[in-house]
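Anyone able to model this chain together with FE2/S2 (inorganic) cluster?
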Amino acid sequence: MAGYPVEEASYIILIRVCALIGFVLQYTGGNQLAEEGFVRVGNLDNLSDGDMMQVKIGKQDVLIANLNGKIHASSDVCPHQFYQLSTGDLDGDVVRCSLHGAEFDLKTGEQLPGKYNQFGSLPVYEVRVTGSEIWVKNPAV
Ligand code: FES
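re: yes, here you go
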């Protein structure tokens, strides 16, 4: 490369090749996930440990949570009176519904014993992380 010492030019070429390989791997990985029914819903940079957020997959409200660096996905709809769980409190792996206090384990979807526990568990969805992208299996597939 004109104007660069040979060693510096080698580093620049190496960095460009690595960036290209990363792009190709991410692109082809995403295509594979999309073919398997996964939907890209967000980025790890926007979901720190202990955070949760709501995403839409089709008409489904889906809760995404970062639990100790592992991403989990479930329905974001409380089975009691259909309130948005992602507005509740997250304590470890457990989300507490902010409307009446029902609690759910976000790793399993199971409702914990206590208030309003007769309304059932949450559906949980498969998650894949590729690079920094978060993908969730479309509940409708
Ligand atoms: S709506 Fe969630 S506990 Fe009542």
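The mean pLDDT is 89.
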